Amino acid sequence: MMSCLLTIDRHHALHIAVREAFPLCTHISAYSLSSGIKLFSKHRPDIVLFNMHSTGADFPDAVLPFVHSFLHTSLFIIHKPQQIQKICDLALIGAAYFIPLPLNMIQLKEAVLKTTYRRQESVCEPGVHDMLAREFAGISKVSDEVRLRIFRYAPLPDAVLITGETGTGKEIIASLLHRLSRSQHPFITVNCCALSSHIAESELFGHQRGSFTGAHRDRKGYLEEAHQGTILLDEIGDMDLAMQPKLLRILETRRVIRVGSSRSIPVDTRIVAATNQDLAELMNRNSFRSDLFYRIHTLHIHIPPLRERPEDVPILIHHFSLPDYPLDFTDQAMRMLMDYPWPGNVRELKHALTRIRIMAQYAPCRRRVTGAHVQEALNSRIYLNPEGT
Q1: Is 292 part of a structural domain of the chain?
Q2: Residue range(s) defining the domain that contains residue 286
Q3: How many separate domains does the chain show?
Q4: Running DSSP on this structure, what letter comes out for residue 177?
């Protein structure tokens, strides 16, 4: 499939070099940022090469029009090494790929071809954009950023750390990362809270027959079972301290050794860790190893609590509505739901809607939800155990 490539640079030499490096692409040239944005809006290219140093653009505002189209455009920013501090925020959200000066055209070509192949492989799958919007619903800027990170991180083999309060949807994010990259292979969820110290090693790494009392046969561990797939280590902050260096070794070597065996087994398992705890605070209390933290923190997705994105509440209500039983919320009812702090986040909202649906079913005006219904549902809410994803 022929790609459309937009180059933004005030020097003609780069435009010529890019055309020679990518002869099969359709090329568009812009010699200023303003003309680049206009051409971008008109043609919606697949690839943008933007020389930040040459244009003297105000960063990061200059690249936001391109970042917001992340599902359809690969953005490559050419920059001077001393400009690296300015681009850290965009690098962390996976919004762009960064090429330092002096420019190496061979490396640039390899990076563009590799990235474009991955993007076409994902985007060409029917409904990727719809799936992201449906599974992690919301119109807020922070929800857009979460979806952007999911899309950028999914094809990568590195570990991902997902953080957020209970009920924000960390397991949904892990599932999306898996479905956009390794969907043909196993997805296994392990609750670290439930792994007692004396069985954790056997559960994660497996064991050989006769290695301990009750080991009547060889058994694969979860990491081996998830080979070529994904394992979600939920509530990793609760992992036994003695197990943490062993997990670190797996991350570094990509090999497991079953209990009672000396043979190492290669595994290609994508590790996703999730927690509602502050791992930095746990490190300060010597309850979590810093080396493991930095290893799983390679890629990070933080899900903000629902109270920080109230504009997502109406979208989530629509998302959780029953197609054959839609509810009609009064303005007061919707405002009350948006103003409520939701300590249990999206999970609590979903449970509240179930109670509201039952109340509205027996109201004089069926399916019409008033402020009184919302107040009664919130007053009768059930506080859940804060543990969970």
Answers
A1: yes
A2: 153-303
A3: 3
A4: H
